[in-house]
Amino acid sequence: MAGRSGNPHLELWIAATGLSHGEIARRVAAEAILQGHRQIAPDTTRVRRWIDGERPRPPVPALLATVLSETVGQPLTPGDLGLTAAGAVLDTIQLPLLTEAAAQTLAGWTQMDLFLDRRETLKLALGAPLILAAERMLGGTARRLNRDSKGFDTDTTASLEEVTAFFTKADASKGGGLYRSAIVAQLAEVARRIQDGVPVSLRARVFSATADLAALAGWVSHDCGRYATAQRYWSYGIYAAGEAGQRDRGVEIVTRMSHQMIHLGHPGDALGLLGVASARANLPATRALVASQTGRVHAALGDEHQAERHLGEADGLLAEGLGDEAPEWVGYFDAAEHAGARAVSARDLAGIGRPRRLASIHFTDALALRKPGFERVRVMDRVGLAAALFAEGDAEQAAAAAQQALDDAARVDSTLVASRLNTLLDAARPYRTTAVDEVRARAADLARARPTTVAS
Fold this sequence. Notes:
mainly alpha; two-stranded antiparallel ribbon; 2 strands; globular
């Protein structure tokens, strides 16, 4: 009987071959005869059922792996095809049950991601399945690890931490486009080593760094418009954070998933994810982050009262201080980041005629507070400021701010910036002056050079 959620791994690899289901069935039958299994003769319908989630009995998984390996020119295992039991599956987000099996799943994702390059054919999880997946992942418990130490030692663990820190800083400065493939390749190597074994003494460090790397892989995938792929990496990041004993790290990753839902126009799903995160946030920094983002989502939904309630809660937590022990992975959330959330909230509420304070003032506050090294978000603030000034009727100042923003935007490879450029174009539409026409032309050129989505 077919599983409800299908087998996205097998579907992707069959799609990568370019062959019809009928041809796949024919080749599997031919391979079966070569190996002496004359009773195996699948048809098109059977291949469709496998993709839909039906698990074929041995030796069919091995036969499929052989056929697809020969066709795509890359060695594949039944595990790569989603034909081994690696855990419960919910709407294409894998929920691993065992450490080694989870790493095998991650290895499969990275392999598909790198091999298929810019093809985004995975299914994006939305609605109740997405919220339930986040709740189950955050509620999971760590499992027994392989005690073999051949996967990691102290030196390789330190190297993993260092390279993850490098990529994190590079992404914040230049955007994710340039580094995404390298980050995914690094994550693939980590998954391979986890399968080889993690010594108990290094467990927390290895999985903490892995959570950071998976969260980053998700973020740069999101920033490149590969939204379903981002969900896969984030789901593993949440799992790895649990293995490291860092539940609040998983909460922070759920806020990234909620950010993507806002970006894609699903504020209800974003709010559902943040509800799950809020129930499990313990650190002052993660509680403030969740409150800030929750307020921002309520603003997108037009609920001024709830927006101000949650944004005010974040104000209070920031005023009290987020603590000297706030971990690095949430270090980006500070007064500047919250000012940015207030800015976009004011922008959204202004769109329905209920601003408490001009969005341009909040964007100015955010820019004044931004620390060095966060160039992408600084560019987004500058573009947001220019768009807000246009919306507020100050076309001359808006055009000047836009020119500075566009100078900076040209140096960052980010679809998040491209999305803000489209907001700028919308805000500038009512104005017809030479200065604004120049802004409009430059912004349109940059937006075209950095499309907000990839081909699916």
